[in-house]
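Obj.: predict assembly geometry.
Materials: sequence records (below).
Method: joint structure prediction, all chains together.
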Amino acid sequence: MSKKAVTKTRSLSVCHGSCCVLAGARDVAAALKAALKENLPGARVKVKKGRCSARCGGGPVVTVEPDGTVYTGVTPGDAAEIVKKHVAGGKVVRRLAAKAKVEPGPIPALGESGFFKDQVLIAMRNRGRIDPDSIDDYIANEGYLGMAKAVTEMKPEQIVAEVKKAGLRGRGGGGFPTGLKWEICRNSPSCDDKYIICNADEGDPGAFMDRSLLESDPHSVIEGMIIGARAIGATRGYVYVREEYPLACDRVIKAIDDARAYGLLGESILKSDFSFDIDVVRGAGAFVCGEETALMASIEGKEGKPRPRPPFPAQSGLWGKPTNVNNVETWANVPPIALRGGAWYASLGTARSKGTKVFSLVGKVKNTGLIEVPMGTTMRQIIFDIGGGVLKDRELKAVQTGGPSGGCIPADMMDIPVDYEELARAGSIMGSGGLIVMDDETCMVDVARYFVEFLEDESCGKCTPCREGITRMREILDRIVEGKGKRGDIELLERLAFTIKEASLCGLGATAPNPVLTTLKYFRDEYEAHIYKKRCPAGVCKALIIYRVVAGKCTGCQRCVRACPVGAISGPRSQPHNLDQDKCIKCGACYEVCKFDAIAGDAIYVE
Amino acid sequence: MVCPCRQTRKVSSLERLDPLKLKKLHNELRERRSEEVTIVIHMGTCGIASGAEEVLQAVLDVASEMGRSGVVIKTSGCAGLCSREPMLTVEVTGAPPVKYVNVDPAKARRIYSEHVLGHQPVSDYAIGVGCERIH
Amino acid sequence: MAERAKSIRIDGRKFTFRRGQTILGIAREHGIDIPTLCHHEALEPYGSCRLCVVEVKSGDRTRTMASCVTPAGDGMVVRTSTPGIREIRKTLIMLLLARCPNIESIKAMARKLGVKKVPFPKSDEDCYLCGMCVRACAEIVGVRAIGFAQRGHESVVAPPFGLVSNACIGCGTCTTICPARTFDLDKVFARRGMHRVEGKDGVGRCIICETYYMGG
Amino acid sequence: MLGLEVLILEQEAGRRSDIERALSKEGYTVRFAQDGPSLLAELGSHPPHLVILDLDLPGNEGMALLATARSLQPALPVICETELPEVEPAVEAMRRGAYNYVAKSGSASYLLETISHALERELMAVETRQRAKERRVRTFDDPESLAAIDGILSRHDYSDSMLISYLQDIQKDLNYLPQDALRFVARRLNVSLPRVYGIATFYKAFSLRPRGRHLVHVCLGTACHVRGGQKLLESFERELGVPSGETTYDDRFSLESVRCVGCCGLAPVFMVDGKFYGKMTQEKIPEVLSRYE
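Observations (raw structure tokens):
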């Protein structure tokens, strides 16, 4: 056969739906690659990881493109035949060809459109399929195989090397390379103990992937931690869970007990000489405990106040011992990396951000929920393809990412591929992955005020810039949304922002001004409208709007009359209602219930 | 609420495993497909908040009325699409799984009788067939 | 072979230092002034007022660090008074002055840093939460009779439940060390009828045994 | 309304019989006082549940009687009546502790409504006082309570690093953290009380005051905020009549806001006793609240 065989086949798409993967699709893909290399070296035929084609009963499924032949029930042993006969020879392998085409039924295939189409799962690989309380379910889905490999076949240095090769970065905020973090902690001298911690104090409002992961697949986090402990040389681990997440707490505790009973945790794991155990610690309601040093103080039974670094936790952490902290999603990514290797993981993603990221897609978007997409997916794809677009088809204004430490990305930047670097360039951060969609009814000054108030509430109060500065920022924003803003307020905000960012003791303070800075950067006109024109363009800020009945649209259904808590709306049935401005407290209840857009929240113009 | 499969599930001996036994257990569990139909109620926090417990109760009720031989009823965590919760998935062995959204007790009863027992997907409530792509 | 002495550069001058010394310690040793409000020689560094921030260049990273809690590193280049640092200090003292407009030490610091006007509404607190009293009680006296309560902007120094603390021995260290001189021992311990130790010059150090003792 | 006694001082015979008719129909027991001194005597011997007082008695006697009656029975609701309602005497009467001020020419149903509101408030006040009394009586330094707390502390070998966890468990049992309990914990673990107190006030989950029978948590996460969480909270404040962070006077609900409960997909969200209510509007609040007694 010639070295450069001319073949019409462009790609072999191996279905990577969970059913096919469970039936052995990965081995089939590997066999196809090998067969291509052996039989058609140099041919430009790709082996792709395909979406589910809804032939789940007969997996693994291979689709030859572009001719569209579908092979079902393929085994690795069939690979050579498919390559030789079909790819090189152009003849269909009758024995394997699907009996009939799948008729496009009334129910669309999950992988072909909508919410599930562009998602690729690694961290949430078992979602919706396994019973979180069943360790057997987890083991059936390759659970603890990565750990078994790491503990019995790999040296700790090798595990670290694989994680480094994977390019996995911390999924909780800063995006520090996980492998490097482990290495530093591993090399840190210690006379006896080292600790690892799973940070499940998911504080970013608008993000809930950690909760979901712990609730639906607690074993994957535990397995990740065991692998990490092996790599670092830790003897004890802690899962620090927010107390607002009682279900997650229960499920992790049950999972730990089950793992112990199987000998996967505790003394001599898998009958090896490696021992490691995990405890669960409940947080008590303090956002600042997401900060590593504050979190450790909290585990030690103290107030969650951060302490200066250095020394870093990797040198002197929990009880003064070297400690490694990673968040839930990071740990959940570890088992597949141990099982399949770093290169496998790094094959997804962008130049410096590898693998997938879980986002919580919420706010003013049609499909809300948790999504997992390869790094580099564009914001537009996420919001419009996966999210189905803005709620009520209103106009997209911005996307807030990264929680209170992050920023708002304006609608005209929706084509940026989402990864650590691009988000930072846009002035925001990845954070733990909250994506809050905002439409033209969201006031950006109000959003900035919201975050600043949040941080004021959550500041531990130790250092001056964070404690005093954030309060002052909130006061300024308060008067802006109340229509009492003054010339010079924006500059004062910027001055405070600079000082808080530079001089604060911990990450909470250092990133606290971000929501204000990004909204000032992209939506300065809204600030100016509030300060100089005394109007809120989005119709949110109470002091600057009035509600009124649009006579032409009001059908007189009386819903608003019933909803109004102060009896400000009146009028007989079937006639446009009256709204008494003197009584109105601007609670917006009428606006919420009106089905005919007959209540308008108008800006008060003072021009 | 206790997952209904916890009562029926045979807990494997829970002996301490070594690497070989773990692999063996994995293979056994993977092959274990005794029942004809599996119905999974997704019970993450969003699901429960949207009424997944009522749906589960409805499924258990209708199962005891109409029979549950060859049917595995189980729960899982979150399925991802919060805005369309409660969700459930029905998988008839040999056919692709079907995901249902915005399920309520009445819809659950119909899905049970038509899809679980009659093997005919209820297209009115389904969002899609097939499964999710994993890397 | 003798180890090469480790050195640091502060405002252009080169100094050698001992292991564990902070940037602030070295600077003060050589007469370089860095303003502080929560630092006390007798107490562990705390790093809360942030007035002592300096620009630290280490390797190719330049960062703003609190000099009282940052250990000196070999080859660090420190600048104690860049325009940015001065701006930060001014803003910080404005914030503190707005909180405590009537505390002498704050007013003096504001004068020193050239701050006259405060662009924020003033309140009238008598404590700026430097924590010296709390730390002195724990570190020097060793009884932990007072502590911080609440958090964030509502943080206060208080005995438990706002009542007399049983652990208090009435030594008066807290009142003497308080840089604001507002910690009113009489008020806090009135009900116990304990006398207070008069202290004039704060905590001093015994030149023979090197332990700290109450001044006065 | 059976068994509730209303004592009336009214100089006009016609009005007397009007009131008697209206009130008896509703099941109230009506008694009349002849004059000021006999009214005060009745208050001493057979205290009624409510007094209706004619303010038009000669020589401003009504106003004086009101003050004396209130000083004798501070909790007794008094409704004042007058022929010619004017602002100044009305203000004066309210200042002296009248529950309300009604015109004699007003409708009977308005009077009845006023009476029932006054009694309702009074009954609740009694109940609240009683509960407050019980609460004061219930201290947590009796051997039984201390043994229970000790049981919690022993779960982790009295290790002070588990302090936060102990406080969580104690609060779960007692609904809040009483002073006595904190003092006992400090003593038993041999840690300083300021540390225990500092932690109990630093972390949001802890309450040093008793809370209501049901806990309402309104989520103010970002997703809830942009979808109207703040409005939901304000609506609760109106509905329950207490600001966020407080407990209703009847101890039924405590209202608190919380920074994201991680149920963002269903925003806006609130929780009652840990049960989630998603995709909420202000309109649905009363119905949900009515499910909790």
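Conclusions so far: The CA atoms of residues 105 and 179 of chain C lie 7 Å apart.
To do: check interface contacts against the pulldown list.
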